[in-house]
TrEMBL record:
Protein name: Phosphotransferase family protein
Classification via Gene3D superfamilies: 3.90.1200.10, Phosphorylase Kinase, domain 1
Species of origin: Seohaeicola nanhaiensis
Location of the Aminoglycoside phosphotransferase domain: 31-254
Range of residues in the leader sequence: none
InterPro entries: ACAD10-like, ACAD10_11_N, Aminoglycoside_PTrfase, Kinase-like_dom_sf
Length: 341
């Protein structure tokens, strides 16, 4: 069985001593319990802490776990209005620890895992969501030519490309027939809107728990987990936020379904979308149900891959992976419901 739970700290230390200026060991490695796709470790050293993010070992789906792309996009965004961790080093030599990895700074802040934001005072919850909205709009206004990312994704209809890609990924990791997923894939093709020409940097998995906020106040210090980033259509990122909020609240669903948002101090879907459109100077967004349905479809494809890795024995967190995998038909049905709206 491929080991995703431990790290060869001696090999990492030797490599960093040779290749990372200012590095001094010894290393203590602690695995983060988040990050289903690319195992991520906190590296503690006497001088400072770092974060190591690696490809999982074992046989992987083509184009998945692209840590080199994560490193590139975050390096390109350094100094922009999109907060990211500082990138230190990319190692693509599999012989060091068995797979590619990169080293970035450890951003010392707080990770707010659930969008209910229960741990914050009520008056801060809306401010955090507005900061999330601001960063998303800034991401979609990055000049991709100026930061050297114009070739970071292929041209053409983003949604057409993504539906095709994730349909293939889903089929490659399919473990049982799910009629709702089959129907959703077909209807997304049939009901795809025409390409409106928007071409921006997109994160691909934009959620509150993929962000680090200041320990005091509501500023975002870094957006994490750029594995699915590409050049594409900005509405996919916006719809992924709305998709997440439609899931059940709590640790499993991590959504806002059934939550009294006004009492909680949180924005409605419509308020969040309107604030985003105002920041980008857009009059509004037609056919938003399609974009939400697409996000449910893509998430179903992602978690099907997580389930397959768990069954194959090389998931980053096997117990959680099996639990997450049970949501594939749920996400597929939510996608069909969104199309109905």
């Amino acid at each position: 069985m491929a080991d995703t739970q431990t790290l060869d700290t001696a090999a990492v230390g030797a490599y960093l001593t040779q290749n990372l200026p200012g590095f001094e060991g010894p290393i203590e490695a602690v695995k983060f319990d988040v990050g289903q796709s690319n195992p991520t470790f906190l590296l503690k050293t006497p001088g400072r802490n770092y974060v190591l993010r690696r490809k999982p070992p074992g046989v992987l789906l083509k184009s998945a776990h692209a840590v080199d792309r994560e490193f590139r996009v975050q390096s390109a965004l350094a100094g922009s209005k999109v907060p990211v961790a500082k990138m230190y080093l990319l190692c693509e030599d599999d012989s060091v620890i068995g797979s590619a990895f990169y080293i970035m700074e450890h951003v010392d802040g707080r990770n707010l895992r659930l969008p209910t934001l229960d741990e914050l005072p009520r008056e801060d919850r809306g401010k955090v969501m507005d900061e999330m909205n601001r960063v998303l709009a800034e991401l979609h206004m990055v000049d991709i030519d100026a930061v050297g990312l114009s070739d970071y994704g292929p041209p053409g209809n983003y949604f057409e490309r993504q539906v095709g890609r994730w349909s293939k990924q889903y089929r490659a990791s399919e473990t049982e027939t799910i009629p709702a997923m089959d129907q959703l894939m077909q209807e997304l093709v049939e009901r795809m809107p025409p390409d409106d020409g928007q071409r921006t940097l997109v994160h691909g998995d934009y959620r509150i728990d993929n962000m680090i906020f200041a320990k005091e106040g509501t500023d975002c210090l870094a957006v994490l987990d750029w594995e699915l980033s590409t050049i594409g259509h900005p509405y996919a990122d916006l719809a992924s936020v709305i998709m997440q909020w439609q899931m059940p609240s709590g640790n499993d669903g991590r959504g806002l379904a059934g939550v009294d948002r006004a009492a909680q101090g949180l924005p409605t879907d419509e308020e969040f979308i309107a604030a985003y459109c105002a920041r980008r100077g857009l009059p509004g967004i037609d056919n938003f149900g399609f974009y939400t349905a697409f996000c449910f479809f893509r998430m179903a494809g992602i978690i099907q891959g997580v389930l397959k890795r768990a069954l194959d024995g090389n998931a980053s967190n096997p117990e959680r992976a099996l639990k997450i995998g049970a949501y594939v038909p749920v996400f597929a049905q939510h996608g069909l419901d969104a199309l109905g709206r």
